[in-house]
Amino acid sequence: MDRKVKVAQYGCGKMSKYLIRYVTEHGGELVAAFDFNPEIIGKSVSDVLGIDSIDIKISSAEDADAVLKDVQPDVCIIATRSTMEELKPAFAVCAKNGVNAISTCEESLYPWNSSYEITKELDDLAKENNCTLAGSGYPDMYWGSLITTLAGSLNRIDAIKGISSYNVEDYGIALAEGHGAGISVSDFEKKIGKYNNLNYQETVAAIKDGKVTPSYMWNQNGWLCNKLNLHIVSQTQKCEPIVKKEDIHSDTLNMTINAGDAVGMAAIVTTTTEEGITFETQCQGYVYAADDFDRNDWTFEGEPTTSISVDRPATVELTCATLVNRIPMLIDEKPGYITTEKMPNNYYLTKPMNEYVGIDEMDYSK
Fold first, then answer.
1. CA-based, 20 to 30 A from 297: which of 37, 40, 62, 339?
2. In this entry, which stretches build a coiled coil (predicted)?
């Protein structure tokens, strides 16, 4: 591409500060921004997010259709909510206007096993308008490509076990509430843990009916199995509250969480496959105490048994950088809702991102 990649930002909250800066630092051009918050609509991105020299005014998300039609960006980055049902309007307005779109939404990484109907509808709309939709972020690399790459170094794999944690304070109120932060353990069991004993078919049905929210690892195990060409026999999910012995204040929830109440949850997903490989993966999202930190630990049981730990990963920044580095591949992908296990492994953009658009996969590093 012989010009800058034109980018729109849909959602101007905490993540967008990094997303927009990373886009511009890698040679992209912000041409539009959208949000729902009336307090920032009409203000410049520079004033709201503290990013120098970006005078684009933030438009209402309700005006996205008209603005996208007018400016025709190459890609729109969606950083708002955490489920496909919530993101469907944003993805749809992009697809309607033939704009490629990529989201930080955790479910968007592999929504085929949790929101099939929504994903199929968006897939059809994207194909109809010749654009590509996808999800990316921290799980794309640190729960995905990193794991499948390491798998290629082993002779035999019996089980893959992963634990990853993150501070819900970094991702906004919707995510914190979705993790049960701030409620009592008894309320957690009534609202979230009540579905812990469902079998595979019952869980799938409950997800389809909207009774169960799939954890991030539900989608991630699907991504991993598809990438490794494994066939799922069974998959179950169990959500357990995380509690602390001391009171913890949450700025995001604007409350003090009492000792013994849930500060978040651990979502544990167990997957068995026809090929005999078992996955036990869990994500722990909660309000951190002073001595808590992000972790990402994985173990491959087999020959040889191998473990890897990423110490104190900067999850927010890594989420944003992973997504931005995906942009050239997104633009070059075939139309439809294309999950990233079907794309090449991510690479670092040493040159402006437009110089990677339209080149052969084998030439990405040149």
1. 339
2. none
Over residues 112-169, the pLDDT tens digits come to 999 999 999 999 999 999 999 999 999 999 999 999 999 999 999 999 999 999 899 9
Residues of the chain under the 70 pLDDT cut: 360-366
Amino acid residing at 351: K
Is the domain of 114 the same as that of 253?
no
**Residue 86 belongs to domain spanning:** 6-137+317-363
List residues bridging with 262 in a β-sheet.
Answer: 243
Which token pair is 8?
Answer: 């729109």
pTM more than 0.70? yes
CA proximity to 174, closest of 111, 102, 87:
87
Instruction: Return the amino acid letter for 308.
Output: I
The percent of residues above 90 in pLDDT, for the chain, comes to: 86
The residues, ordered by sequence, that sit 6+ positions from 4 with a Cβ below 8 Å of its Cβ are 27, 28, 29, 352, 354
- Is 30 part of any domain? yes
Our count of domains for the chain comes to: 2
Evaluate whether 9 touches 30 at the Cβ level (below 8 Å).
yes
The reply to whether 68 and 180 lie within a common domain is no
Strand pairing partners for 60?
Answer: 35
